[in-house]
């Protein structure tokens, strides 16, 4: 399904759900002692900073993280969304453990992997070059 209205350009970055999202909104409320309703003429309002949650996988974050990337590289094996989802789980686990924010999570994790490599006897640069080779193959215009 391609959304063309409220969810145009939005989908869960973890599981790909694009049918329904929970978005924290603001709305003018008509409140009395008996309860609250949406005030006449008021509209739901949200923006890229509005907290958003996927009801299918519970991924949450600001709405801008749910925007569909404008263009992704080729995916000859049809696996790159899954690969990104696996990495998302690693980032989420790292963030839970360290409390780092989403913006800093990737460079902080890479830095800590450098420290880990020093202690585990791995050459980080060699591993990074190998990862770049894998990425190039996994985003080549045609399957190798
Ligand atoms: Zn999801």
Question: Could you describe the 3D structure shown?
Answer:
The structure is a single chain. With 144 residues, this protein is an alpha+beta fold. The two termini are 30 Å apart. Strand 2 and strand 3 form a beta hairpin. The model has no long low-confidence stretch (mean pLDDT 93). The longest helix has 19 residues. It folds into two domains: 71 residues, no CATH class; 59 residues, no CATH class. The chain has a three-stranded antiparallel beta sheet, with no helix packed on it. The chain has a two-stranded antiparallel sheet with strand order 2-3. The protein is elongated and about 65 Å long. Bound molecules: zinc ion (ZN).
Poorly predicted ranges (pLDDT <50, ≥5 residues)? none
Q: Which shape, going by the Cα principal axes? A: elongated
Outline the biggest β-sheet: 3 strands, antiparallel
As for the number of domains, it is 2
User: Which molecules other than protein and nucleic acid are bound?
Assistant: zinc ion
Percentage of residues assigned to helices: 25-40%
What would you call the structural class?
alpha+beta
Distance between the termini: 30 Å
Q: Could you give the order of the helices and strands?
A: EEEEEHHH
Radius of gyration: 20 Å
Report the portion of residues in β strands. Answer: 5-15%
Please, how many helices?
A: 3
Identify the strand order in the major beta sheet. 1-4-5
Oligomeric state as shown: single chain
Q: Would you report the number of β strands? A: 5
Give the overall pLDDT as a whole number: 93
